[in-house]
Amino acid sequence: MSLSTLIDAITYSSLLSIMTFGLSFVRRTTGVWNIAHAGLVTIGAYVIFTCISFFGGNPYIYLPLAFIFSAVIAVLEYMLIIETLRKRGASTTIMLISTLAFDLVMLSIINIYADYLQNTFSLPSKNFLLRKLDFMFLNMPGIFWTSLLLLITFLTALYYVLNYTKIGTALRACVSNPTLASISGINVMHTNLFSWLISGGLAGVAGGLLPLWIQGKPVLGDSLIAVMFCVSIVGGVEEIYGTVLGGFLVGFTQILGTSALSMVFGPSVILYKSLIPMVILALALLYTPYGIAKVSWRKILTIIKFGGESKRKI
User: Fold this and answer.
1) What CATH number should be reported for the domain holding residue 245?
2) Strand, helix or coil for residue 141
3) In whole angstroms, what separates CA 98 from the centre of its chain?
4) Which end of the chain is more exposed for a tag (fewer CB within 10 A), N or C?
């Protein structure tokens, strides 16, 4: 395995994990799978592209704006759709379908905006890559260091918030029993609103980083939403670090698996690399439905050890 392949695998895995943090966070704290998370990722990418096109500078300095824009859209989604449906007693299935509809609306608006930038300002808004604006450190691209550093930062912050703060306790209480949480004095709407704000902001940051590594386009987030779901489910929604486990398992398997298969069968297999996460997801649902974060590795090692002892006795 070459160094460049390893760097690609770590970068891709880190970006996948950052993208999926928000998806897993809002699912764990509010019980809703937000398909519109894909659109929030794309919005982050277009915030960075717009700022670079009109104001110049380094892409990284605009990441806070990407966080804010996507967070605001996520808050609007929650207030206009999810909270309205929640008050009417809608099921989580209905809420999931509503997020799909919201994502399609965002996708249309993003396409209109990309067309406007292209037709009015002659910008390559339908297909753009910002790698040439990245920096190098120790002969490695800045996106490698930045994505890894942000991954560690977000993981630490979210783990602390969920496990060691009052807002984390309130978030867990709201998803377990919203009625009881409300009776206990917890403002369910404000608590859920905080969760969606953080989720949207993280999606925006991830989207802002993506064009530094892969092509940005109107369907950027939607092209990755299936992989994000795979990372979340394979890693385990109930533990925030499960997202990192899932991200690196899927990312490394996809990059290294595709690289190995291309050497055997030729570069044409690269077109089918999206099948690898789906195979991992199918296996996870069959053997670890609660995610690898919930697997009792000690128990498995004990079973393996017991089996080995039994064979020796036989």
Assistant:
1) 1.10.3470
2) strand
3) 19
4) C
Phi-psi region for residue 137, left (φ > 0), alpha (ψ -120 to 50) or beta? beta
Interval 110-154: pLDDT, tens: 999 999 999 999 999 999 999 999 998 888 899 999 999 999 999
The pLDDT mean for the chain works out to 85
Q: Which two tokens stand for residue 143?
A: 């996106």
Structural domains of the chain, count = 1
Going by C-alpha positions, the residue among 16, 74, 8 that lies closest to residue 235 is 16
Token pair of 223 as six digits: 């092209």
- Helix (H) or strand (E) segment spanning residue 140: strand 140-141
Specify whether the CB–CB gap between 297 and 249 falls below 8 A.
no
Instruction: Please list the alpha-helical segments (H only) found in the chain.
Output: 3-30, 37-55, 63-77, 83-87, 92-121, 142-164, 166-176, 178-183, 188-209, 225-235, 242-265, 275-287, 297-313
**Domain range enclosing 187:** 3-313
b vs e for 136-152, b when ≥16 Cβ sit within 10 Å of the residue's Cβ?
eeeeebbbbbbbbebbe
Bridge partners of 140? 137
In the structure encoding, which two tokens stand for residue 183, read together? 């009776």
Share of the chain above pLDDT 70, in %: 87
Residue partners of 125: CB distance under 8 A and separation at least 6: 46, 49, 113, 114, 115, 117, 118
Which pLDDT does position 257 carry in this prediction? 79
**Contact in structure between 202 and 63 (CB atoms under 8 Å):** no
Q: Which residues contact 198 (CB under 8 A, 6 or more apart)?
A: 22, 25, 71, 158
Q: Contact 36/106 with Cβ under 8 angstroms?
A: yes
Least confident segment among 59-63, 166-170, 225-229, 307-311: 307-311
In sequence order, which residues have a C-beta less than 8 Å from that of residue 258 and are 6 or more positions away? Answer: 269, 270, 273, 276
